[in-house]
Amino acid sequence: MPVVVTDNCQKCKFTECVAVCPVSCFHHDDEMVYVDPVLCIDCRACLPACPVMAIYDLDDLPEDKRHWIAINAERSALCPSIIEKCEPSPYASQRRQDLGYS
Amino acid sequence: MTGSLASQEERIVHGCCPLDCPDTCGWSITVRDGKAVKLEGRKDHPVTAGALCAKMNQYLDYIQQPDRILYPLKRVGPKGSHRFERITWDEALTEIASRIQDARETYGGQAIWPYYGVGSFGLLQGLHGSGRRLWNVLGASNHLATICSIAGGIGTGFTIGDNRMGLDPETIALSKLVILWGTNTLSTNSHTWKFVDRARRNNGAPLVVIDPVKTRTAAQADHYFQIRPGTDAALALGLMNVIVSSGREDREFIDAHTLGFDQLKDRISEFDPARVADITGLDEKDIRWLGEKIASSRPTAIKMLMGVQRHSGGGMAVRTITCIPGITGDWRYPGGGVSYDTRGYFKANWQKFYRDDLRPAGTRTLSMTRLADNLLDLDSPPVKVLFLWMANPMASNPDQNRVRQALERSDLFTVAVEQFHTDTTAYADIVLPGTAQPEHADLHLAYGHVYLSWNEPAIAPPGECLPHTEIFRRLARYLGLKEPCLYASDDELAIDVLSSGHPWLADTSLERLKREGFVRPAIPTPAAVFSNGFPTPSGKLEFYSERMALQGHDPLAGYTLPAHLRQSDTETALHPFVLITPASHHFANSMFGRKGTKQQVREGQPTLMMNTDDAAQADLTDGSLVEVFNRRGSFIARLVVGCSVGRGVVAAPKGFWPGGLVGRSNVNAVIEERDSDMLGAVYSDCRVGVRTYEPKPDGL
Known about the structure:
heterodimer; A: 102 residues; alpha+beta; Alpha-Beta Plaits; two-stranded antiparallel ribbon; two-stranded antiparallel sheet; 4 helices; 4 strands; 12% strand; globular; B: 700 residues; alpha/beta; six-stranded mixed sheet; 17% strand
């Protein structure tokens, strides 16, 4: 079961996940990253890598975040691939603090 | 301890994954107050690169499950009833030693079968080193691990001189054309995917996937070849036909470094693309395209794993595919050649480690995948003591019904070393509690990369669990054996196997391994180790092999038909499908395949893939339960109808434990106990029929 990137990624986009993905299955737009559910191999290396816990295993995805499954599938098909870590959003460290992860 | 002291109570210990997987990941375990609290792939390992996999990402939880076996057990109910009582190690070892001595006195040492599986690829605790010296001294039957790669290994060796050598998979990143042949990289070799990806992004290399099953890896291919099972050697000859017909072979390389090209040319000329299309079920134009592409792409990398050789012509298939880079000269270049196995990059002192010199001359060899035959049909001497470790034959061996019958023998004394109860431990007289990877030391080579790894114990074994090395030392003592090498410590064993003095080990020492966790052999980066010749008898790549002729094989690379294409018309009518049994995404062989594990929940129920047209013709519906059958037995699966497989082919991923399934059989109930052309089992070469499952009145 592929993993799912959810709302904590928005305005963060740390891309630590991209650095550890063994199959380069992340795609991105200006806001956040998305996982290609066909290529994801369920290794879960990205889950602990994310500084704001934005990524979930399908097993653990809360009800109110289930809509992110379809968003990841749709957006990964439309957006370009990202294979290397890049600079996070300028709001990232503030957002991380606000989310309680610093 | 290796690693750093992160804080007073916390430290990081380096280790590696023990599973039957080419990737042998380097990992770090965070230990806090003596407990393993975190497991991470090492970011600084060029292959692991920080990620583990779907199988192992919750391994620490797995080994701490409450049903972990912590104490020796003695069977108190009938075989198969899973009724045990706890005993002490002293009682267990006394009993085992006594039964071994009785067997030796009455029947000779060969009545003992030390049967190891592939549960650990560590040299000290796993195959092929653990316990070997002890069994040699006892004169026990010699166990031959035939369950997996052996046929392809022998085939490789006939062509390039070393059963376990080939291209370094890291160098695939340099290739201009990548062919994944009979391998589902994203499921069973996922850490190599990054090298494939680099070749595509950096070099514009097309990805070709050749596989009877359209796997998740095949879905990523630029060109997918859905080949008829077992016909890969014919395709290889067809590709060579295209290359040679257009005069694109590397004459300089062929003249300098190969033997038998003239004979091979004659054979190649018989495999024109039209004939090969007929044999393989592929389109002639696609065969021509691929031959052309190989001819014009230097270097081309061909990556194989073991799926391609699980049939009666499997050894020859790998041999013949391995000839392709001999025609194109690809062996000269980093990123060129064939990769099947990389264990040969470790130039070990196997002699000093194994001490096979202690084994009595003429000791018989027993094939692992002929378990039922060997337990039921042998009588000079019969097998009276079966010592199992790292193995779950009830889940993994061919001819499941007959294996069960064999294990039920009342006159067979069976020991099983395990971490958890399995369908196999139910038949053991004594069960011994073994350690898991964070609880023991080990030294690992890999079959998908060139690094040697050290696994330092991170935590103390739970309960009374012991490493295999310690179990065998203690058993030797209880047997009163005096041979000093039986009592070597783990470090001493490691030093022995590292002691070859080979130049490739010049930078490797146990001390460095413990400090760094993994070490590269002393070869160039990138490496192309065959650019100057091959370790064959002639020093050349042998299209024609005299050694093969002496062993009764066709000496020339060729196409040996799989058994499923050699059946009578009646047989084919009764059993219209050839069954492929590929790896599951979430299991490693049968590890984690027990009903209820996280991995099993993700993998789902056992499934059978069938082609849409075949399902329509047989009036079978997608999603229904079907019974898959032949003369050996049957199993039940959920039908998945689609285009994952071609006509006449069905596929059922392996690894589910039979005890928890409807019908209490898994796919191995229909697999025959039969050797391929070069030893080895034939898991993907059996014919089956498929019908709608009708539950019997007794509910089974």
